[in-house]
Specification:
Elements (H helix, E strand, L loop, with lengths): L2 H5 L2 H22 L1 E4 L7 H20 L8 H5 L1 E6 L2 E6 L1 H10 L4 H8 L6 E4 L8 E3 L5 E6 L1 H9 L1 H10 L8 E8 L6 E7 L10 E5 L20 E3 H4 L10 H17 L2 E2 L2 E8 L2 H6 L3 H12 L25 E4 L6 E4 L12 E4 L4 E4 L1 H9 L14 E3 L3 E8 L3 E2 L2 H13 L10 H14 L3
Parallel strand pairs: 9-10, 14-16
Antiparallel strand pairs: 1-4, 2-3, 3-7, 4-5, 5-6, 6-8, 7-8, 9-12, 11-19, 12-18, 13-16, 14-15, 17-18
Helix pairs in contact: 3-6, 10-15
C-alpha cells in the first residue's frame, strides 16, 4: 500500500478498496461472452491460420473421400499440409469425415462454416479451463485448444467412441468432428479439436448451465440485470428448477445413464452436462403435435441409414429423404375420427402414443425395427438444425449435451479426491471415482427432470 493510502482515514481507505473491487468485478463481467477476433485481436493471426488450414484439410477429404469401410490405417492416419508460415496436421481424417457424414453434414457445408469470410469469435467463460475457445462465425462449431495428452486420449478411444454413437445414435455426448495440430515457427505447437456446439442456434437462449451433480464450488453469480454478458451458471443456481419434458423425461434420464456408463468404462470423471433453455413460440408448441411433423420426426428418428463406421446415408438427423424412411409403416383407420401416431413406448423412456384430432391415420415402426429403436433409446427428433441436442418440453426448448470427457481418474485425481475428502467432509465435490461420478450425475438428472 502506498504512503498516501496509508495516511487515508480508515473509512476512506475502505471506500477506495470497494471501488477497486467493484471496478475489477465490472471488468471481469466485460470479459465474459463472445468477442469478434478482428485484426486488432491477439488471436487474429492464429485463427486466420486455423481457417486456412482447416479449409485445406476438409478439401483433402473432399478430393479423397473415405471408403465405405473404415480401416485401421484410417484411424492411424496423419496428414501434414504445408502452408505459408505454418503447417497443419490432421489426425484420423477419414474417420471424422465419416462421422460428419453420419450426422447428415456435407463436407462443403462443414468447410464453409470453418472457413467463411466472417471472423471467428472468442468465447471467454467463467470456466477454470485454461483452454482457448473459438467459435465459427455462424456459431455452429467450437474450436478448443487441448494439450497433447488429451488429444492422445481421444484418438486412442476414438473407435469405441464411434461404436457408442453407432449403438446409440441419439447419444448426448458431444460430437467431435476433427483433431488437428498447428505448428508455427518459433512457437509452441497447438493441438485443437473441432466440436459441434450444443447451444446451436443460440439466438433466444436465456439461461445456460454447466452441471456436475455436486455442490462444492458450484455456484456462479448471475449476470447483472439487463446485461448481455454470457454467464454459464452451475448446479446450485439451478436448485428449485426442473427440466420439464413430460413424456420425454424418461428418455433423457435413460440416455444420461447410457452415456455416463460409457464414460465410466473409459475411466473418466469431471465431465459436465451442458443445459440451456429458451421459451417456445406458440406456433412451435402447436407444431410439435402436428401429424405431419410427427411423421417427419418419426422418419428422421428411425431411418437406419449408415453408421459412423460406414459411409452411406445419414443414420442420425440431417436431410433424410422420404423414400429412405422405410421403417415408417402407415395404415388407415377409417373408422376413427382421431389420429394416433405410435411414438414408440414408454417404459424405456421413449414417447408414448398421442391422440390427434382431424384425420385418420396410424403410423408405427414395424416390430423388429421398433425393438431396435427401443434398444438404442431413440426418440422422435425435432425438425431442427441441431436435433440431437434439442428436446422440446411443453413450454421450453432445452439444449442438452455432455462435454469435457478427457479427465482420467489417475494418481493425481486420486490424491485430489483424498485431499477434498479432508477439506470438505460430508460435502459433495467434483473429484470422485468414475462410478461415483456417473451415479451422482444420473441421480441429479433424475431428481431434476419431470
Amino acid at each position: 500500500m502506498s504512503q498516501t493510502e496509508t495516511e487515508m482515514p480508515a473509512n476512506r481507505r475502505s471506500r477506495t478498496m470497494k471501488r477497486r473491487l467493484w471496478g475489477g468485478l465490472r471488468q471481469q463481467w466485460k470479459l465474459l461472452g463472445l468477442f469478434e477476433i478482428d485484426q486488432q485481436h491477439e488471436f487474429y493471426s492464429l485463427t486466420q491460420m486455423m481457417k486456412e488450414g482447416l479449409s485445406a484439410a476438409v478439401q483433402n477429404t473432399i478430393d479423397n473421400p473415405p471408403s465405405d469401410e473404415l480401416s485401421e490405417d484410417d484411424f492411424k492416419m496423419e496428414v501434414t499440409q504445408v502452408h505459408e508460415g505454418f503447417q497443419m496436421q490432421t489426425f484420423s481424417g477419414p474417420v471424422f469425415s465419416s462421422l460428419r457424414h453420419s450426422l447428415g453434414m456435407t463436407e462443403k457445408e462443414y468447410q464453409h462454416s470453418l472457413a467463411s469470410e466472417g471472423c471467428y469469435l472468442q468465447f471467454i467463460s467463467n470456466s477454470k479451463s485454461k483452454a482457448d475457445f473459438f467459435i465459427t462465425n455462424d456459431k455452429r462449431f467450437f474450436i478448443k485448444t487441448q494439450n497433447k495428452r488429451e488429444v492422445k486420449f481421444l484418438l486412442s478411444n476414438l473407435k469405441i467412441y464411434l461404436e457408442h454413437l453407432e449403438s446409440y445414435p441419439h447419444s448426448l455426448l458431444v460430437k467431435f468432428l476433427g483433431v488437428h495440430k498447428i505448428k508455427i515457427p518459433h512457437q509452441k505447437k497447438k493441438y485443437f479439436i473441432v466440436m459441434q456446439s450444443v447451444f446451436y442456434p443460440d439466438d433466444r437462449i436465456n439461461a445456460r448451465y454447466d452441471i456436475k451433480g455436486c455442490q462444492v464450488s458450484r455456484w456462479t453469480s448471475p449476470a447483472p440485470e439487463g446485461s448481455h454478458v454470457i454467464v454459464v451458471l452451475k448446479d446450485m443456481n439451478f436448485e428449485g428448477q426442473y427440466i420439464t419434458l413430460d413424456d420425454q423425461g424418461a428418455w433423457l434420464v435413460r440416455q444420461v445413464e447410457i452415456d455416463t456408463a460409457f464414460l465410466q468404462t473409459i475411466n473418466v470423471l469431471d465431465y459436465s452436462l451442458l443445459l440451456a433453455h429458451q421459451p417456445l413460440h406458440n406456433d412451435e408448441r402447436d407444431q410439435s403435435h402436428n401429424l405431419a411433423t410427427l411423421i417427419m420426426r418419426t422418419k428422421n428418428s428411425v431411418n437406419p441409414g449408415s453408421s459412423p463406421s460406414h459411409t452411406g446415408l445419414p443414420c442420425v438427423p440431417g436431410a433424410v429423404l422420404e423414400e429412405d424412411s422405410a421403417l415408417l409403416v402407415s395404415e388407415m383407420d377409417r373408422g376413427s375420427d382421431s389420429v394416433r401416431v405410435t411414438e414408440t413406448h414408454s417404459g424405456d423412456g421413449l414417447i408414448p402414443p398421442q391422440e390427434l384430432q382431424g384425420g385418420a391415420a396410424r403410423a408405427a415402426p414395424a416390430d423388429s425395427e421398433l425393438q431396435e429403436f427401443q434398444a438404442q433409446n431413440r426418440r422422435l427428433l425435432p425438425n431442427f438444425k441441431n436435433p440431437l441436442h434439442v428436446i422440446d418440453g411443453p413450454d421450453l426448448r432445452y439444449f442438452v449435451g455432455i462435454i469435457d470427457i478427457f479427465t482420467v481418474y489417475g494418481f493425481k485425481k486420486k490424491l485430489e479426491n483424498l485431499w477434498k475428502r479432508l477439506r470438505y467432509p460430508g460435502q459433495a465435490f467434483s473429484t470422485v471415482s468414475p462410478p461415483a461420478y456417473c451415479h451422482r450425475l444420473c441421480q441429479w438428472v433424475q431428481d431434476h427432470t419431470k
